[in-house]
Amino acid sequence: MPPSSRLRPRTRRRRAGLVTAGLAALSTFAAVTGVLPASYGAAAAVCGTANAAQGRPSSASSTENAGTPASAAFDGATGTRWSSAFSDPQWIQVDLGGSRQICRVALNWETARAQTFKIQVSADGSTWTDATATVTGAAGTQTLDLAATGRYVRMYGLTRATQYGYSLWEFGVNVVTDGGTLPGGGDLGPNVRVFDPSMSAASIQSTLDTIFRQQESNQFGGQRYALLFKPGTYSGLNAQIGFYTSISGLGQSPDNVTINGDITVDAGWFNGNATQNFWRSAENLAVVPVNGTDRWAVAQAAPFRRIHVRGGLNLAPNGYGWASGGYIADSKIDGTVGPYSQQQWFTRDSSIGGWTNGVWNMVFSGVVGAPAQSFPNPPYTTLAQSPVTREKPYLYVDQGGAYRVFVPSLRTNSSGASWANGATPGTSIPLTQFYVAKPSDGAATLNQALAQGLNLLFTPGVYHLSQTLNVTRPDTVVLGLGYATLIPDGGVVAMNVADVDGVKLAGLLFDAGTVNSPVLLRVGPDGATASHAGNPISIQDVFFRIGGAGPGSATTSLVVNSDNTIIDHIWAWRADHGAGVGWNTNPADTGLIVNGDNVTAYGLFVEHYKKYEVIWNGQGGRTIFFQNELPYDPPNQASWMNGSTRGYAAYKVADSVTTHEAWGMGSYCNFSTDPSVVAERGFEAPTRSTVKFHDLLTVSLGGVGTIAHVINNTGGAAQGTATVPVNVVSYP
């Protein structure tokens, strides 16, 4: 989708999402007509939520031109369409691959719709039976419930509503499933290792070491692990955490699990350089470091959540080599945090005993003990409170030994850890209300579980999705363990979330497939308008990757259409190294598009996309901490132009936006393919008193390329080998 269409005011972006809205409406209908069973094992036939027509073979009586083929109505993309010749009658059909019980269709009409039409079915694609009487076409998405059986489904257009042909953005088909047969609960699979205090330290250490040896430098491998510790005290351990490895306590409070030892991330595998220590995490336990200070030398996508460090914390690798980026939340560090060589860092709703230094961009939101506001010297951005937060859901065991998932409550104007003065407020959900997914599960099974009313718990592994996962029920929890990875196949959207209250997405890695997906994760259909102020959707520790493990392509990684959404730590990354990397090999335009109003983002890491990294169209948006690197690989200036403007800004607030505020924002360039490339600016926004920026910086890494201005035409050029930031304290 071209940038101009993304930057339209909200009132002009309604129609683009009509098919998504229609399919979400179908799914919501299924959720409220009896598929939320009291017993999660009860069997029932339901109208499924999956679009059985998506990606299936299709044909039509005619096409307007080569750019509007029949397949475009079945590709899951709301920006492509089928259109016919300008005459009557016309038809478009799809092959479902076998005889199915068809219970509903959704026709997302473009302006050129049918005046009258029928839905017909066929066993062989030749002899057709009417599944409906003659229907009057309706603008937008038209949903029709029906009861018919056939392999082929078609829309048979009788008369047109305009002088043009028939035109459909999407043609969705739902079929009957035995939706109530999937059980909740179950084992956590072979890649979850559970330890308890009765085990010997030697046996635990042996398991930790074996996994670390496999994962230490396994940057793009397919192995995934979660290391879970039941409540109690463990001594003499050094848990070294490699790629795609999560270590977590299974208590309800971090102090229920105490490790007398270390939880260590270092960079020996990369010669003391920690800038590629991605995709690992620590959560929900206490650590008493052997020498008084724990080491957590990480870069992006490596959260440190709900941890009590009974000592200090060192965020640099041994030898104080390069380090870049990181995230702490809902934690207590009794001693001093030393970032040392970390170029930027974000800490939220925690308490610390002290903070030693800052390089470019240290941001604190709701942190007790944080240094005072002083950007740019030292480069501390400090907010006393976080405006609206909800901590990440987490797995734990209750007193009877059963697994449950705890969902913390919403907080406003918060500071300090949620558990600092007692148990974290929230709701506990038994594992029996989750479908415990394994990598062998297909998308149809996962959609069946969601339609049945189950939450999803993804165990560690790589999941290939042949169809979009549709999350439609309010308050659904979708939680991944051990960097569970979702890969859309055939160009589908990996996940759609309906415009409903309180959905929680956490702990997932979306990895682009080899066929371009228009979006990897869409939160709310295009044109969503419902307020969720009292119970927002939340996105936490959700990461996106375009290439690196192999060629991948997705136009946009994350689109947030739902109002009031909380984005709490994402890393959207178009890969600059690994397999399948190149200007035209792993293409991706934009990491994040926010269309919803009153969306709040904390810990926003977005890097290397080919156009705008972030586009913010919604009103009332807030971002607290943004870290960005512009694409390394523009072949030359001519290849990276936004009209007559050199390059694209990292963070674009649309001209239509009247209220927006952001704090602690950094953008860096390293145009290694052609160092003569220039980005005109790091940030771009309308100049209004109600669109505010605080503590901005741009940096040229080693002078490899130039960012001419910080924001709009304000701020000098970031250039030169000294790698010195150019700062703007406030704008306008």
TrEMBL record:
Signal peptide: 1-30
Cited PROSITE patterns: FA58C_3
Region (Disordered): 53-74
Coiled-coil regions, chain positions: none
Matching InterPro entries: FA58C (IPR000421), Galactose-bd-like_sf (IPR008979), Pectin_lyas_fold (IPR012334), Pectin_lyase_fold/virulence (IPR011050), SACTE_4363 (IPR059186)
Polar residues: compositionally biased ranges: 56-68
Assigned keywords, A-Z: Signal
Residue ranges occupied by any F5/8 type C domain in the UniProt entry: 42-176
Pfam families: F5_F8_type_C
Protein name from the UniProt record: Coagulation factor 5/8 type domain-containing protein
Organism from which the protein derives: Microbispora triticiradicis
Lineage of source species: Bacteria, Bacillati, Actinomycetota, Actinomycetes, Streptosporangiales
